[in-house]
Amino acid sequence: MAMGTSTRKLNIGMIGFGSFSHFLAKTMMKQGHVVRATSRSDYSHQLGTNFIRDMEEFMGLEHDVILICTSILSVSEVVKSLPFHCLRKPTLFADVLSVKEHPKQILLQEVPEDSDLVCTHPMFGPESGKDGWKDLNFMYERVRVRDEDLCSTFLNIFECEGCKMIEMTCEEHDRLAAQSQFVTHTIGRILSEMQITNTPIDTKGFEKLVQVAESATNNSLDLYSGLFMHNRFAKQQMKNLESALQRVKRLLEARMLRENGDK
Ligand SMILES: NC(=O)c1ccc[n+]([C@@H]2O[C@H](COP(=O)([O-])OP(=O)(O)OC[C@H]3O[C@@H](n4cnc5c(N)ncnc54)[C@H](OP(=O)(O)O)[C@@H]3O)[C@@H](O)[C@H]2O)c1
Known about the structure:
263 residues, elongated, alpha/beta, prephenate dehydrogenase (NADP+) activity, NAD(P)-bd_dom_sf, Prephenate/arogenate dehydrogenase domain-containing protein, NAD+ binding
């Protein structure tokens, strides 16, 4: 089936119901899919009886898709503790973590052989996606897919909202995300440490920097730490940032010495 054409409604089970899951669930439900969730904390006030506290009961429901939305730091512990024996049928397992090699490896290790796997990263969040998902990037890798129809129906949730669908390996994602997303979060955190705020004489460039600082700190520290600890390319980018700052500083100092020497 071509993507973008499905009308099939899915039973989606979310594991981890924090802020990003809430945000995704709203659109999934708007499209007519049934969303049930479980999480470490109690979210029954938001989802009513579709929030299932007991993990065995949750896994025993006939989900078409189980979507892992937990933090990067907790995914290993969470997935390894899932009672897979309670699954009633082969299920598509998907994740939305902001690093990709790490969950791929865990899911390949833990998910039963007869269930399919797709690793994804919606490259947007509750703030950047608040006015819709049109033209926002959505990365995915079909890691182990036999039920093409089910996988396409799941991916179609994002495609039919207008996301730009980008298929690439988890390794390629992590290499690129370290130099784009991780660097953005790090600059944002540095600017926030500097306590930058708007001034009456802001340039457009500075207004953007204030936004970068705000959006970096709107995300949890768990998320940012996960980007560093579980993307093997991030440490090199941190070193690149440090050495780039030193080079820029040396450039200015050398220029100042030259100017002073000429006088
Ligand atoms: N925020 C974004 O813009 C964005 C965009 C794309 C992808 N993502 C990914 O989406 C996932 C969720 O992100 P988030 O923004 O909601 O915040 P997050 O801080 O990365 O994750 C919060 C979620 O992790 C669960 N959790 C944390 N520690 C846990 C533990 N020790 N055991 C079990 N569960 C634990 C929380 O459960 P409780 O709420 O029940 O405590 C909550 O569901 C992350 O993997 C993130 O990388 C986020």
